[in-house]
Design a protein that fits this description.
By secondary structure, the protein is α/β, with parallel strands linked by helices. The chain has six helices and nine strands, in the order E-H-E-H-E-E-H-E-E-H-E-E-H-E-H. 30% of the residues lie in helices and 23% in strands. This is Polymerase/histidinol phosphatase N-terminal domain-containing protein.
Length: 210
């Protein structure tokens, strides 16, 4: 049984202070078998991530979180840049052209267009995100109604958030097999909500130093 966090940000996202090596170390310390690196609109850190993963004998799924014109979309199994600002449908098409799978990330977030992205044909929906209390319930209901595969991810921007959510599945620790299991819906979602201390940390991280 593998335990994997499918939604992790690093320094390459611009709004995270987590080094790739520290994200992997945090995941290992918490008993995870792997993580997906999904930086905002960037694959710049993936080469570094794969080198460290090889050295640490740890599974890293290459990925990206794309800011489509309709909401955020995770492209897992993607190592090449995909432009931001495209429609959700076009973004999903680009992800598949590059051999990846497309996941609607926190689709009912209040700070994004809540329903537009769901018009696209996703491979899965993120139904547990530690920062999205109401949105998780709506995403779960949506996935259930339309028979879509369900996943979870921490959406970690700080290293101690890695592993707050993810999936468990029976599979070999190989990217292609894991992506296949996700598409087939053969995963179990786990997660717990972000502690208040982490919310405060995120707020102060954005306050300019005087």
């Amino acid at each position: 049984m593998l335990t994997i966090d499918l939604h992790v940000h690093t320094l390459y996202s611009g709004d995270s202070d987590c080094e790739i090596s520290d994200a992997i170390e945090s995941a290992k310390r918490k008993g995870l078998d792997g993580i997906a690196i999904t930086d905002h609109d960037s694959v710049a850190g993936l080469e570094e991530a794969m080198v460290i993963a090889s050295e640490e004998d740890f599974l890293v799924i290459p990925g990206i979180e794309i800011s489509s014109g309709d909401g955020h979309i995770l492209g897992l199994g993607v190592s090449e840049q995909i432009p931001a600002g495209l429609s959700a449908a076009k973004t999903v098409e680009k992800i598949r052209e590059k051999g990846g799978i497309a996941i609607s990330a926190h689709p009912f977030s209040l700070d994004l267009k809540p329903f537009s992205a769901l018009r696209a044909e996703f491979d899965a929906v993120e139904v547990f995100n530690p920062k999205r209390y109401i949105g998780n319930r709506l995403a779960e209901n949506y996935a259930q109604e339309y028979n879509l595969s369900k996943v979870g991810g921490s959406d970690a921007h700080f290293c101690d958030e890695v592993g707050l959510a993810g999936i468990r599945l029976d599979a070999k620790p190989e990217v292609d097999e894991i992506l296949k299991r996700i598409k087939e819906g053969r995963t179990t979602v786990f997660g717990r909500y972000l502690p208040l201390s982490n919310y405060l940390q995120r707020i102060f991280h954005r306050v300019p130093q005087l």
